[in-house]
Amino acid sequence: MVNHERNKKILLDLLKQPENSRCADCGAADPDWASYKLGVFLCLKCSGVHRSFSCQIKSIELDFWDDKQVEFMKSNGNASAKAIYEKAVPPFYYQPCQSDCNVLVEQWIRAKYERGEFTGDTKYPPLPYTTGFFEGMLWKKGKENTQFLKRKFVLSEREFTLTYYNKDDESKGPKAVIFIKDLNATFQTEKIGHPHGLQLTYQTENSTRNLFVYHENPEEIVTWFNVIRAARYAYLKTAYPTGSDKELVPKITRNYLKEGYMEKTGPNQKEQFKKRWFVLDSQTRKLFYFKDQLDAEELGVIFIGTESNNYSVSPFAPKSTRGNKWKHGIMVETPERQFVFMCEQEREQREWIDALRKIHSRPMSPQDYAAEAKIRYK
């Protein structure tokens, strides 16, 4: 019992070291689990992944630690493991945080410790995200229906394109050629209804197009995600040759600032309210709205400018409540018109206003002004 208490104190003291005070894999604060095989401190979520391929996981406070295990933790720790297992992580490779979906966290952990992808050793065959070319089959949702069908996708970093084919016969040509310049990828597991669901979004001539895809194999879908990120990184390095990784990496792919249903009325604020799915993209300063969350194309888009350019975001009680079931209103005012939305709950209203104001308070760049000039309200 004396040894147990002494060893627990040693472990708790190790946790106070800055490098051990966060989970070795996702960065979550105050890890309370550890791998005595790898010598790393982990959060509950990441410890579960480690347990799936190694039973050498213990709770720091609840489990018994013998002297040998504690000495191993003292001799290693998160910083030592990072120097080995993250020695050569490419700048474009996505390193997940605590809030990311399970498949990203799991595959990051397996890539580090199981497959040893970032040790700096030469890999043969080379890792797909290092080759500049990748092809394979993905399940893709139909544009006009909810059916998912297998489609072939081909990514070429040399051409900066992602191409997909509707049929196995490629001689009939591609269904779409997507330019990496305009492509975003983000995991949407809940929205798509699959633990490996990935949303691909790109700009067409007249609208924004969403593709919803998945692969049954978790390693394969995360490989696709990082292959796309590798191509995006290469494009950004070409487009902005003086840009640093600190500037460019956040632009590779992005999660949307907020998504969800709100009710929307028309330009006269007397039209019937209709339920719409909204997506707020911080990078482009655009609020998109769709009939439903898995729609391929938006019904409309609203640019979120700054107060000095005659934009505003505020709580609002509408004059008319025709057709609306929700009571918590928001007004977004642009130089051209006013938009009124209704939220189901006051909490959602606050969250939307906070998210919109986060963009509204950010100064506009020259690229923002160019994007604003192209907006046509429906």
From TrEMBL:
Q: Where is the PH domain?
A: 131-233, 255-361
**A biological process (GO) annotation for this entry?**
atrioventricular valve development
Q: Which GO terms describe its molecular function?
A: GTPase activator activity; phosphatidylinositol bisphosphate binding; phosphatidylinositol-3,4,5-trisphosphate binding; zinc ion binding
- Span of domain Arf-GAP: 8-119
Keyword Zinc-finger listed? The answer is yes
Species the sequence originates in:
Oryzias melastigma
Q: Tell me where it mainly resides.
A: cytoplasm
- What's this protein's name? ArfGAP with dual PH domains 2
Location in the cell: Cytoplasm
**What keywords appear on the UniProt entry?**
Cytoplasm, GTPase activation, Metal-binding, Repeat, Zinc, Zinc-finger
Under the cellular component aspect of Gene Ontology, which terms does the record hold?
cytoplasm; plasma membrane
InterPro entries, sorted: Arf-GAP_dual-PH_domain (IPR052589), ARFGAP/RecO (IPR037278), ArfGAP_dom (IPR001164), ArfGAP_dom_sf (IPR038508), PH-like_dom_sf (IPR011993), PH1_ADAP (IPR037849), PH2_ADAP (IPR037851), PH_domain (IPR001849)
